[in-house]
UniProtKB/TrEMBL annotation:
This is Methyltransferase type 12 domain-containing protein. It comes from Nocardia macrotermitis. Gene3D superfamilies: Vaccinia Virus protein VP39. CDD domains: AdoMet_MTases. Residues 62-157 form the Methyltransferase type domain.
């Protein structure tokens, strides 16, 4: 069932290549709204505005940028961003969106682990990574070393992602919070097969329906950043996520964030970590 580890990139890239057109036409990504409204920011970037602070003039890189809505949002906040992703199909949509919005953004095709080779070392004031990124990577240590190598001295990281505890839950159970899947990083991936993606779309996946994913414990993430030579400057766990993690058990607020209907204080669904290179 599990192919060789060396194949995980190809398996996942094929899946994202097929997802990208579905996402580009999805009301969840609402690409036309960015074209129509020059002030629109993605919900993910807007959520972390208090932690991002003033990024005007900063040279930023958005790792695993997908369709580039977060990358565009960083540009609209005054940063000079580069978007990096391994899916050429997603990047075609990202470049089109930036062009239609009149934003000068460089999008680079590369696997995240090859980012230093693709972009150069110590070039960036800010490394930004948004929701749903780390689960596609088998080694959190290698990711953290990549982030550190991209940052110039004094540069910083801002990462918001799904909380690893939430990733252990069985989303089919509606009677209780059932811990079913690994919390810590494992040698072998969790292999998933399905035709649906995580947002409402007009179609479904037809061919590349398999993905390989990994969880990474919060302690593993923090330790990896520390081992890579970064200093942790902030860590916040959130009771919400920008998608319905547990279908039928969450409600969406005016801020576009989903929270448990009952017992919101029981579980974090996302987290934001900030770190700085000495």
């Amino acid at each position: 069932m599990v192919t060789a580890m060396s194949d995980y990139r190809n398996v996942n890239r094929a899946n994202w290549d097929e997802r990208a057109p579905l996402h580009a036409n999805s009301p969840a990504y609402a690409l036309e709204r960015y074209v129509a409204d020059p002030g629109l920011l993605s919900g993910v970037v807007r959520f972390d505005l208090p932690r991002l602070g003033d990024i005007r003039g900063l040279r930023a890189v958005h790792l695993q940028c997908h369709l580039g809505t977060d990358t565009l949002s960083l540009a609209r906040l005054g940063a000079n961003p580069t978007g990096l992703d391994f899916s050429p199909v997603a990047l075609a949509h990202a470049r089109s969106l930036a062009e239609r919005c009149g934003a000068a953004i460089d999008f680079v095709e590369s696997d995240v682990y090859d980012a230093v080779t693709a972009l150069g070392p110590e070039r960036f004031d800010l490394v930004y990574t948004g929701i749903g990124a780390l689960c596609w990577l088998p080694s959190i240590d290698r990711w953290a070393r990549t982030v550190a190598a991209l940052l110039r001295p004094g540069g910083r990281l801002l990462l918001r992602d799904g909380h690893p505890m939430a990733s252990t839950l069985d989303d089919a159970r509606e009677d209780l919070l059932a811990v079913t899947y690994p919390y810590f990083e494992t040698a072998e991936p969790q292999v998933w097969t399905g035709t649906q993606t995580y947002v409402e779309t007009d179609g479904a996946l037809q061919e590349a329906t398999t993905t390989h994913q990994w969880n990474h414990g919060l302690g593993e993430i923090v330790t990896a950043l520390l081992d890579a030579g970064l200093s942790i400057t902030g860590l916040v766990e959130h009771d919400s996520a920008p998608w319905q993690v547990l279908p039928g058990r969450m409600t969406c607020g005016d801020d576009g964030e989903w929270r448990l209907i009952e017992g919101r204080d029981r579980l974090p669904f996302t987290f934001t970590v900030q770190a700085r290179k000495s």
